[in-house]
Amino acid sequence: MILVSGCQFSAPGERALSNDQCFTPPCETVCPAGETCSSDTPNGLFFRGPSLFDDVVVGGVHATAEGGTQAFIVHRDSDGSQAFAPFDAEATTPLEIKEIAAPRVTLRGAAAGSGFLRILDVDTGALHDRIALAVAPIASARFVGDGMSFLDPEAENLDLALFKDAGVFLGLALRDADGLRLVDESTSITITGDAKEDGEQSAWDRRFVTVGASGAVNASVATGDGKSFEVTMPIVDKLDDIIAVKGAVSVDITAPLVVGSERSLCFRSLSGGRVVAGVSGWVMSGEGSIEVKYSVESCGSVKALAAGNAKIVVEAGGMKKSFPVTMVKAARADAAPAEKASGEEFVGLTPGERARR
To answer: 0.90 exceeded by the pTM?
Structure first.
């Protein structure tokens, strides 16, 4: 499962961004210093690059991998309903124009750094708009399973195993030395081993595979800069651990749960120290005054019904594990303040004149 929304987003060029800062039209037409701008695009243009496999918002602009390529579609509007054509295009170092097929233009990142993609009038050469784009060298290539990037971001730092007989989306995350995600649409991915690939569900940075019963799945990655990466993902038939995830999506169940509140919680499946993708058949329940429901993937919801102690019971991949939780009542907003002992002052409170006496 790849967690993306239907929300489309295009990044504004310099002229569009300047126009967006005007809240009381009509606005002054902005033209970058040193440029001659076209009157046909007073509001500028918007640019949409390829999505990453785990993007929650589709589109936008990402950095290009050094030696790699990235295609952008040019629009008049931010939601991408009005494609813009015809146009000519130029790129400044370290960017290079690889192909123009309006409304699409494909760039190559020739070297690390940043440059401008300039969209020009085909007759006059005047600037419609331009956008600054970054190029960075690839430092790492790692495969991530299912919706892990969204549900369990820390899992991206762990090696991957695959559960037997599962259908799994494998997402390729290319990063620079600082962890910045990169795009290289010239990347090739070759899957071998005990797995069958479904090309119809593939994209430049993801593959859908049906995992076999044993052995391993191997992925060979070749990027536009000539680098190659080999990744081996063993096939497992059972888990040896399940741990609770802490993050923006999942509540920290080591902290007390407030009675009456309902929170989401997610779990990580492990085998041999590797995070396991493709585990299905999750069962979640509660023991004590707690309500636990399964939701999606490895996640569920938890609701504390009364103060005290309880357990969350999770079953998946041939393993069952319990997680103790403490439930507490919410503090009363109208509770009377604690009485002050003789000679004691509360830190952070300034006494009035009568209180000082």
So the answer is: no
